[in-house]
Design a protein that fits this description.
Radius of gyration: 21 Å
Number of helices: 6
Shape: elongated
Order of helices and strands: HHHHHH
Helix content: over 70%
Structural class: mainly alpha
Number of strands: 0
Low-confidence stretches: 1-8
């Protein structure tokens, strides 16, 4: 809750300058990030519940260890991408833990945290789309940098 009594999800995003548009992939990504505290609450609840099978708890433990570990597929030193893979692994572990739990237990925990299975699946899809978007932006930026560097070098060496 914020000072006005609304939730973070209820707040309208800031206005953009005229002539600019919001990228829908990033909008969905920010919505996923705003749900992160509820996912962490879900993880804690599943881990404490004696009705949740050991297999589900083990998946959550592995996901948590990967997320906290400095050794990743995408190093944390790479801004955004390094954290994106951690978030994906964590949410995937949550999804698997929910899948391995008895349906009534899973629904109980999801309801308590205000998350639906559809939202969880959509958030995983959003993280995949965000990774693709980020990779495409990186390739385009790398191409522009290479072109500008080539022009600079060509101009420098062609004058001699």
């Amino acid at each position: 809750m914020d000072a006005a009594g609304g939730t973070v999800d209820d707040q309208a995003p800031p206005e953009l300058p005229a002539g600019t548009t919001r990228d829908p992939t990033l909008e969905r990504f920010w919505a996923t990030l705003r749900r992160l505290p509820r996912y962490l609450q879900l993880v804690a609840g599943l881990l404490r519940d004696g009705r949740v099978p050991a297999r589900a708890k083990a998946v959550l433990a592995v996901g948590g260890i990967y997320t906290a570990s400095p050794i990743d597929l995408v190093p944390g030193l790479i801004p955004v991408a390094g954290q994106l893979d951690d978030l994906f692994v964590l949410l995937y572990a949550v999804r698997q833990a929910v899948r391995f739990s008895p349906p009534d237990v899973a629904v109980d925990h999801l309801d308590r945290c205000g998350i639906t299975l559809i939202e969880l699946d959509e958030d995983l899809t959003t993280l995949r789309a965000t990774a693709k978007w980020l990779a495409a932006k990186g390739v385009r930026a790398g191409g522009r940098l290479a072109t500008q560097t080539g022009r600079l070098l060509w101009g420098t060496f062609s004058r001699r």
